[in-house]
Each structure stands twice: as C-alpha cells, then as structure tokens.
Amino acid sequence: MKIFLSSDMEGTAGVVDWEQCTGDGPSAMAGRRLLLAEVNAAIEGALAGGATEVVVNDSHSRMRNLPAAELAGQASYISGSYKPLYMMQGLDASFDACLFVSYHGSVGAPAGLSHTYNPRAVVEVRLDGTVTGEAGINALVAAHYGVPVVLVTGDRCACEEAAALIPDVYQAVVKEHVSRVAAHSLHPDRACALIRGQAQAAMAAAGGAKPPGLEPGVLEVFVRTTDIAEAASWVRGVDRTGPRQLRIEGPDRLATYRAFCAAILLTRSVAEVV
Description:
CATH topology of the domain at 2-105 and 134-206: Rossmann fold
CATH superfamily of the domain at 2-105 and 134-206: Dipeptide transport protein
CATH class of the domain at 2-105 and 134-206: Alpha Beta
C-alpha cells in the first residue's frame, strides 16, 4: 500500500506556544523533535500494518520542519513553502490511503493554537454546512482522487472535526484543550505509542475504507474584514455572498480546494493590514 502523510505541527503533544511552531530558535527546534517523533510513529505503524511506501508532505509554516534523513521507513519527503496543492501536495490517485498527523482544531474552536489556514484572515469555514478545520478542507483533495483518509492525530477538537465529515476515520487524540495556549498532553512516548497503534489499525482497515463523501463539497468561508472578502472574490470559483462571507465551489472538489488556497494566498497582504 502506498500512503500519503500530511504533517502539520500544532496538534503535537507538548506543543502549546507559537514559539514552538515558528522560526529556528531553541523552542522551535524542540517542537520539531516532538513532531518528528509523532510523524515517525505514524510511519512505523503504517509499515507494520502493511504499507510499502510512505510519502510525507511537510505542511506546516515554511514546510521544512523535518530532518529528511531521520524519517522512519525511508519515507520520501516533500518540503518547501510554495506548493500548488499546499498541505496536500503530492497526493494523486496512485495512493491507497491518507494520514493527517499533528492536526489542530479550527479557528474559534476550543483547541490550542486553533486556526484555519490563515488566522489573520479566516474566522470560520463550513464544508457543506459543517464547521471544519484544515482536515476537512484537505479531505476535498482526497475525495477528488478517490483516496480514503484513514487516520487523524492531534488535539481532541481536530479529531472530532475530522470524524464529523469522515465518520470511519481512526483517531489518535494526544492532547486536551485547556486554553488556546495551554493543553494537557500525553507524555510524548505515550502519544507516539497511541499514534503507532492507531496507524497500524487504520492500515488493517484501509482495504475496506471509502474516500470521503464530501458531496457537493461547497465551502463557506467567513473572513475578518470586508477588504479580505473583496480581494478573495477576485479568484475564479469564489463568490462573495455577504460583507465578510464567501462561497467557494469549483467544477470539482479539487478545483474548490485550489480556489480556497488561491484566495488564502491572494489575501495574505490584505490580512496583514491593521
């Protein structure tokens, strides 16, 4: 089985502060070690469950958080901060399953470091009427290519949000919300053991897993300012349905995802304006 793994960072056990997630300082380097251990646990579990190839797409911040030589199972590594498919770069119909590792809750949710793609721009996202975070949005790409999403790891909110749209997804909850900048995390060894076990179980069930339904796959996006909404509406497939509300629907679910990513990229400079 060929497996695609998209790794974020804020859902890692022990990570509770932005200094652990950005830059190259001591706190960020410590956060990356915690993330690497969880990614490797997922890879090891997948291989134990029958995976024969794992492709890791580094999906966090500048997307170069993992030391390539230290990835388990000789997994290949997609890194770098400009990718046309962003957090899902590399996925296509040749894969048998997707894993989402170290994911976090959506903006506004009771979860540590909660956000949805761009915290300066996005206030809420709904997928076919259901509030979702990055896992649900990214699942649009898996749905397009017919690839099941079989595992999500991270904080409880991220796992529950994913399960609301992908009911059979395996979950590894490694930390509980205390506040947006505090959490009760499992010990890293226990978190990795849980992830490893759930990844192995997910692989055992992957043969019968179905791709995410997500039909019709329409995104409603609520943004912070009217200027952000105006700029986003310049993207094909993005319609402004209110002062700060957008409706995103392309001819297929991949096009919808691309339109969302394009809107996020286009509005970054507008979102930075105080």
